[in-house]
Every structure is written in C-alpha cells, then in structure tokens.
Design a protein that fits this description.
ABC transporter involved in vitamin B12 uptake, BtuC; 14 helices; 1% strand; globular; two-stranded antiparallel ribbon
Length: 309
C-alpha cells in the first residue's frame, strides 16, 4: 500500500506543473483524460473488484452533474456544488444498491443500464428544477480562459487523486478481500463468513459517489448541461472498456487503460477521421482478445523472456 501511495505522490508531482507548461488544447485533453481516469477507477470498485457488470456510471455522472448544476444556479459556489453532487450520488447509490445488488449477471447489468434512462426522462420532465430538455446554464463567471482551463485541470486531478487513493485503500483492506472473494465465488464467500451484501453495497456506493463527484465538476467545466449529454450511455461504456484495456480489478490498471484508450483515440482520429470509430473499436477488441488481463499484465521481464524463446 505504501508503494502505491508513493507512486500516486510521484504522479501528482509530475502533473502539478503541467498547466503552466502547455496550451489550452493540451489542458483540455488532459482534463478529459483525468475525468475518464476518475470514472474508470470509480467503475473498477464494483465492476473490477467485485466482478459485477454495472452499466450505471452514466446515471451517477448525470445525477451528479444536475445536483451540482442546481446548487450553483441557486447561488452556491462551484466546490459546494461538487461536494453536494458526491453526497447525492452516495445517497442514491446506497438506496439503489440495496435493491439492484440482489440481482446478478445479465439481470444486474440490464437493471443498472435502465436507471440512466429513467433519470434522463425524469430530468426532461422536471422543467421547473432542471430546465427539462432546454438544459441548464451555469452562472456566468468572469475568468481568463487559460486560468479557467488550469482550475478545471486541477479539479479533475483532485477527482482522480481521490478516486485512486480510495482504490488503494480498498484494495489493501478487508473490503477489498471481500470483494475479490465475491468475484471468485459469491456463494462460497457467504459460506465462509463474508458479508457479501454489505461489501457490495459499500463498493457500489463508493462507485456512485465518485462518479457523481466527477459529474459535478464536469458541469462547472462545460457551463451548460442537458439530459442527452450527461446521461449519455458512453459514460457507462467507455470506463468499462478502459478498465478492461488496462486490467480489471487492479489498482493502476484503470489509469493505464484510460490513458491508452484516449491516446489511441487521438492518434486514430487524427489519421483516420472518416473511419476513426470503426478502427478504434477494432484495435481495442484485438487488444482485449490478445491481452485478456489488460495492459497492466505486461512487464519488461516477461517481454524479455518471451523474446528470448
């Protein structure tokens, strides 16, 4: 655990001066990368450690975005809105988890997928509070574009740091052990004394709170939100792909997977604009097929051993 926190500290030292060494385009790209790192780590709590195929990240992200937006529109500062988003996500995930975590496999996946659509319809219908289909504009803030880009880079860096720190703590705790046993064989875990229900609900709640926190920061960063944007199914699908690409159920796998996915996306988009989505999908499928344990399973010693044979 100490080594993992040391790696986290080194990462923070490396990333801290980045906003002052580059332009707004790279800052925006970096902020997006940190957002998906946070979402991937959040999904890894329940999908990676416990092996429950959740498709509910878009629901938590959208809920957090609107919770933060409503608070800001009513006069609260951005950071207060972000904290409020995290708390709303935590409460909602606790309530939802107590119900849907009774399901397993495909039934659980479908149930979590539907939640985002239900929340989107509620948001569309509740015009007086959410603005409905017209969306929600954040209060105007007089801010230099570069200064604003730096602020939201650091805000997303804070989200990624919190998510990674939570992952490290869970991985090295009794909760992490319980989640791994659930992933291996939930019935056997129950028989040997693991409180599987409590462990799953805590992991789901952490995942929801972290996803909602990121959604809250996203609202301030974008300045305008609408249901179709923040409840986009891609916010559920992309983190799953990133975790599988980097290494499911590992500490740094989601970070590696998110970085690799966005790097591939940028390279393919620049060189194959018209067919970029298809080529990117093919590359990712091939990587997952030939590296079922993710990029995190690679190491220089193993590569050297293979090349020596």
């Amino acid at each position: 655990m100490r080594r993992n926190f040391l790696i986290l500290l080194i990462g923070l030292i490396v990333l801290a001066p980045v906003p002052f060494l580059t332009d707004t385009y790279v800052l925006r790209l970096g902020t997006t990368a940190l957002m998906y790192v946070s979402l991937s780590l959040a999904w890894n709590m329940i999908g990676g450690f416990a092996g429950y195929p959740s498709f509910g990240m878009a629901a938590f992200f959208g809920l957090g975005a609107y919770a933060s937006g409503i608070l800001q529109v009513n006069g609260f500062a951005g950071p207060v809105g972000w904290i409020g988003a995290g708390l709303v996500g935590l409460a909602f995930a606790l309530a939802l988890g107590a119900v849907v975590l009774r399901l397993r496999g495909h039934a659980f996946a479908i149930a979590t997928l539907v939640v985002a659509e239900v929340l989107k319809e509620i948001t569309n219908a509740w015009n007086s509070l959410t603005g409905g289909g017209m969306g929600l504009n954040m209060p105007y803030q007089k801010m230099d574009p570069i200064a604003g880009a730096r602020i939201y880079f650091y805000a997303m860096l804070a989200c990624a740091t919190i998510s990674l720190a939570a992952t490290i703590l869970v991985a090295g705790s009794k909760l992490g052990f319980a989640l791994r046993t659930i992933k291996q064989n939930e019935d056997a875990a129950s028989m040997v004394g693991v409180n599987t229900t409590t462990a799953k609900v805590i992991a789901f709640a952490l995942s929801g709170a972290l996803g909602a926190l990121v959604g809250g920061v996203y609202t301030s960063w974008i300045n305008f939100i609408e249901p179709a944007d923040v409840y986009d199914p891609l916010f559920s699908i992309k983190p799953i792909v990133m975790v599988l690409l980097g290494g499911s159920g590992t500490v740094f796998g989601p970070v590696l997977g998110a970085a690799a996915f966005l790097l591939l996306d940028e390279i393919v988009w620049r060189n194959f604009l018209e067919t970029h989505t298809g080529i990117l999908g093919l590359v990712i499928v091939l990587l997952i097929l030939f590296l079922p344990k993710g990029l995190g399973s690679l190491s220089w010693p193993r590569l050297l051993q293979r090349s020596a044979r």
